[in-house]
Design a protein that fits this description.
The protein has 399 residues and is mainly alpha-helical. The protein is 80% helix and 0% strand. It folds into 2 domains: 85 residues, no CATH class; 243 residues, no CATH class.
Length: 399
């Protein structure tokens, strides 16, 4: 302690009249104390040493007639800074590494996205050159894959719009066809990405807003269009929640992936999904410049109140399944958060990002063409489902 005493006392003497003495004491206390505790790893030993240093520094102040509350405050500040220095440095290092990791993840996702899009395009090129006997079924399978990936491709709204326009052009079974289209698009898009409430609402609101725009332009079919869309997105959302519940229950080998999604957070979010869905509809209706706003408000007031029981039941069942899984793993909610922060999210699906590949004011001919093809395919899938249901009903009647 002799060298420490000499340095501290000499500095006090040299700067006793300095107007910045408070800052000098604080910084000197920090630097000297940091060296004295740097080899001590146990918190109790560190705190004991800091207590001894505090007594030493205050005695030195007293010896130099500088023992004031301001100077003692400077000593305390220096000791506190020294006590937390190593841990703060470690924290800052982790924060920096986390930021670098996040940047790396974004770049990797973009790279994977580019690879997937390129692969789909090259497959289509090859399919178009193949024998006609296999081209039709191959294109159907490829379009099914692309339809599941429209969020990643950045053409969710465009594809939905094309599917709606195709339905309106055929002018047959409009409400039922729109219901099937929106149910399938909502379910498949949600299922292909991260399971979060905000993402659910982004997807469903995008689909509903397309319906609102078309309903305001085509008043004759506005109600069928909006009723089919709202019930379809609601059904697709419910189906996606049910799928997550079943995956949670029957796929224990995927537990590492599930942990990354932070089950505790998902559990909390699910409590208000149906209310948030209603709020989404109300907010979307405000964007209407025509008849759509009135139709949606009437639906919310008179027809939809009881129809949300299905979402409520699905979310309640899923919340129970989440609670059981958390109890089964015997992991606290705080540990889920830590795990989620540490994981590199290697298995997170690409569609979880709000990718803005194509903005509304920057569409290309290729995007429009792709959206039209996928929109037509979505309509064909929905029409096949309706025709199949009608045929089954007729077969039952004719028995």
């Amino acid at each position: 302690m002799q060298s420490l005493q000499n340095i501290f006392s000499a500095t006090l003497k040299e700067n006793s009249e300095n107007e910045n003495l408070h800052s000098i004491i604080s910084e000197l206390t920090f630097e000297l104390s940091k060296k004295k505790i740097q080899r001590l790893k146990d918190d109790k030993r560190i705190q004991k040493r800091l207590g001894e240093l505090f007594e030493f520094y205050t005695r030195a102040l007293q010896n130099e007639n500088l023992k004031t509350s301001q100077n003692i405050d400077a000593i305390i500040s220096g000791l506190v800074k020294a006590a937390s220095y190593e841990k703060e440095e470690f924290l800052y290092k982790n924060i920096y590494e986390k930021e670098q990791l996040e940047k790396s993840i974004v770049k990797q996702k973009e790279s994977i996205k580019t690879t997937i899009i390129g692969t789909l395009d090259i497959l289509e090129t090859h399919i178009n050159k193949m024998d006609e006997t296999i081209t039709s079924e191959s294109l159907k399978a490829l379009h099914d894959t692309k339809l599941r990936s429209i969020e990643m491709l950045g053409i969710l709204k465009e594809t939905t719009s094309e599917a709606f326009l195709t339905t309106l052009e055929h002018a047959q079974d409009i409400e039922d066809t729109i219901f099937e289209i929106t149910k399938n698009i909502t379910y498949q898009t949600i299922s292909e990405g991260e399971f979060t409430k905000n993402r659910f609402l982004d997807i469903t609101s995008s689909i509903v807003e397309v319906a609102i725009e078309l309903a305001d332009e085509d008043q004759a079919n506005a109600k069928e269009l909006l009723v089919g869309t709202i019930h379809g997105t609601k059904e697709g959302l419910t189906k996606a929640i049910d799928k997550f519940k079943n995956d949670l229950k029957f796929a224990p080998e995927e537990m590492e992936t599930i942990l990354e999604k932070d089950l505790a957070t998902i559990k909390k979010e699910l409590f208000s999904v149906e209310e948030d869905f209603v709020n989404m509809l109300e907010n979307s209706s405000k964007k209407s410049s025509g008849i759509a706003k009135e139709i949606i408000n009437n639906l919310l007031e008179n027809e939809l109140n009881n129809s949300f029981a299905k979402i409520k039941r699905a979310t309640t069942d899923t919340i129970e399944a989440l609670s059981e899984k958390i109890d089964e793993l015997n992991i606290s909610e705080s540990e889920f958060v830590k795990k989620a922060e540490k994981k590199i999210e290697e298995l997170e699906k690409i569609a979880s990002d709000k990718i803005e590949l194509i903005k509304q004011n920057g569409k290309t001919k290729n995007v429009t063409k792709e959206a039209k093809r996928l929109g037509n395919h979505a309509w064909e899938v929905a029409k096949d489902a309706i025709d199949s249901a009608i045929k089954s009903a007729k077969d039952v009647i004719n028995r």
